[in-house]
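Hello,

Following up on my earlier ticket. Below are the two sequence lines again, exactly as submitted.
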Amino acid sequence: MIEVEGLSKYYGRLAAIQNVNFRVESGEIVGFLGPNGAGKTTTMRVLTCFSPPSSGEAKILGMSVWNNSLEIRKKVGYLPENVPLYDWMRVRGYLEFVARAKGIPASQRATEIDRVAGSVGLDQVMGKLVKWLSKGYRQRVGLAQALIGDPPILILDEPTIGLDPRQIREIRRLIKSFSANRTVILSTHILPEVSQVCDRVIIINKGSIVAEDTPGNLIAGHGKSSRAQVTARAPEGELRNALAGLPGVLATHLGQTSNGCTSVVVEAAVDTDIRPALARTVLDKGWDLLELRAHDVSLEDVFIDLVTEETQEESASEDNDRKEAVA
Amino acid sequence: MNGWYAVFRKEAANIFVSPIAYAVMAIFLVIAGFFFWANLSLLSLLSLKAANNPMLSQQINFTDIVVRPLIQNMSIVMLFVMPLVSMRLFSEEKKSGSIELLLTYPITDLGVLAGKFFAALVFLGVMLAGTLSFPVLLFAYGATEFGPMFTGYLGLFLMGAAFMSLGMFLSSLTENQIVAGTISFGAALMFWIISWTSSFAGEKAGYVLKQLSILEHMESFHKGILSLPDLSFFVLFTAFFLFLTARSLETCRWKG
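Thanks for your patience. The regenerated structure is below:
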């Protein structure tokens, strides 16, 4: 269990995180979501006792990061963002070092290393130099070092960054497989990852938590309207007028038109499914209905909304920055 | 001090896996060997002259002509090569980011420090042990004294440890190894020569400068004397920079 209360961390006068509060129950997988520089890594560094907070309290399994740093470090497995391994070591040698560093008695070291190596699929590369490993295997070695000593808490900073799609899937599957009896916090800015892996999401932006819920609830709670897209073989104006007149429709937007096919996006009240009415209208008018699709609100929309709500003033200048960068 | 041994093993392996260690050792041994040979040649030349001059023959001996200059010259070579080994102790980990992982293992900062420092001392020991053929040859073929040889080596080791400690501290301040190495060399050289101005720096300041100088404190070791003030100088010097390294690690955590 992880409890964080009023946690702040300043670098000079710059606040990396400010008054952050959250709880993670035992056995949960929590996704830490936020744009780059939002304070995810800082929070994780506090939780792993790498770095003390400026103020506030973080407790892991009831132990405070202020007073029980060493005890906490025994219970937490950590994978930093850029997976800093010792390139000149062989995989087995590296894991032996980690096992020794984590205080695993000599008699159990070999079995522990084999167990962990087996569980993340490292058996093939145990004799290789870390330097020559592919990015995917590096990541696995990173996971393996976090798992050594069987810590009840895992903190993973961007565990899938820089991997190819197949490797991402593999790593996700691994994280799920060993999250069964562990508490896992993982940070990411890849949104599908969160909905696939995590029980709960904490969205952090500019050093503060802006939302905290299950992915499902976040999506459900966030939708301001439900949308559906209709594509029919019909004249634009007529189709749009016919649909706009339906009860429950809030607005219509013209989509693409080509070869006499028109598509219109219809917005309706949140909890009404407007699709049957749309279909009936089109058919009653004698047009061909080509496509009818509900537009789901994705976690991405929620995320973008939450993150941009607070940064709207700045987005203009950011756009300028980007243009300059392109130029 | 849990886990210091893990860091020690890793660090020692790192030192002896890297070519730097062997380059440094080779350079040191070649130059030390050169001095040994040169001093021995000088001794044999003087002995030849002494055959016709009984007054001179009373003045020449192994200790004055071979051992003492050899130890002095080796200490100067060490001044050059120690920073090459100490510069990467923390800089490398800071640059690669592995320090972050290392400091989240259940090892105290003191343990990390001790592991790295002792590994550096092992390298120093191995490097000095490479020159042990000199005393062995001298004892086998000549009637040299054991005392000055022993204190000479002890002095070299203590001085090397002091340089390692200084170098480790400077290495913990930067992630750039070259910067760490350069400043270590400069600082060590400064501690070496600082007493040169003591004669005209005024009485009190001169005394302080003299007491700070590594060269001054090496003197007694060269003479074959074990002096408590000089021993304590090197121990305190080493301890002081180890302490600063510990503080520097703490800063690294706060900034992290």
